[in-house]
């Protein structure tokens, strides 16, 4: 099979509306970073488990690109010590919506939780701590009326 034909089949598989739910062995994970050599570090949906490495199968290599923050469906493998799973499917926002409707999406990855944590982080930070931008012009308006009134009172 030529490279173009293989790419066409992989793209067709990704674009298909296959919203089948994950099996018992499969997990939804979030990509944290790319470690090179088709290995990616993922964050598991369980807070108890630590981050681990997953491998990208040959059919996705050089055909599909994933970046930090993307969600993938992984299936565990037994033969590896460092690499603990293999990517089965790359999830799109449509998958996320369907999985949330079916109550399969992990609570750790919900947008509402991410939004709430962003609000808490923003409320804790003070805008007064930021230095002023030296590239902006400082326009000060002196209130002449208030200074004149204080002079007249004396």
What attributes characterize this protein structure?
five-stranded mixed beta barrel; elongated; 154 residues; 22% strand; single chain; 30% helix; alpha+beta; 4 helices; OB fold (Dihydrolipoamide Acetyltransferase, E2P); 5 strands
Write the element-wise H/E pattern from the N-terminal end onward: HEEEEEHHH
Class per helix and strand makeup: alpha+beta
The 3D shape can be described as: elongated
Number of strands: 5
Strand order of the largest sheet: 1-2-3-5-4
CATH architecture: Beta Barrel
Query: Strand portion, in percent?
Result: 15-25%
Q: How many H/I helices?
A: 4
Mean model confidence by pLDDT: 79
By CATH reckoning, the class would read Mainly Beta
Radius of gyration: 26 Å
Q: What is the fold-level CATH name, i.e. the topology?
A: OB fold (Dihydrolipoamide Acetyltransferase, E2P)
Number of domains: 1
* Low-confidence spans: none
Relative helix content: 25-40%
Gap between N and C termini: 95 Å
CATH superfamily: Nucleic acid-binding proteins
Q: Biggest β-sheet, characterized?
A: 5 strands, mixed, barrel
């Amino acid at each position: 099979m030529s490279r173009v034909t293989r790419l066409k089949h992989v793209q067709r598989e990704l674009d298909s509306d296959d919203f089948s739910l994950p099996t018992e062995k499969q997990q939804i994970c979030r990509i944290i970073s790319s470690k090179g050599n088709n290995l990616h570090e993922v964050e598991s949906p369980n807070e108890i488990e630590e981050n681990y490495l997953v491998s990208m199968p040959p059919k996705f290599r050089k055909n599909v690109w994933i970046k930090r923050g993307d969600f993938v469906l992984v299936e565990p493998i037994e033969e590896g010590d460092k690499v603990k799973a293999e990517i089965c499917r790359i999830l799109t926002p449509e998958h996320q919506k369907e999985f949330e409707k079916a109550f399969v999406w992990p609570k750790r990855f919900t947008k509402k939780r991410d939004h709430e944590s962003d609000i808490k982080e923003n409320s804790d930070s003070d805008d007064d701590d930021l230095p002023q931008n030296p590239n902006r012009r400082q326009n000060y308006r002196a209130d002449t009326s208030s200074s004149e009134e204080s002079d007249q009172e004396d």
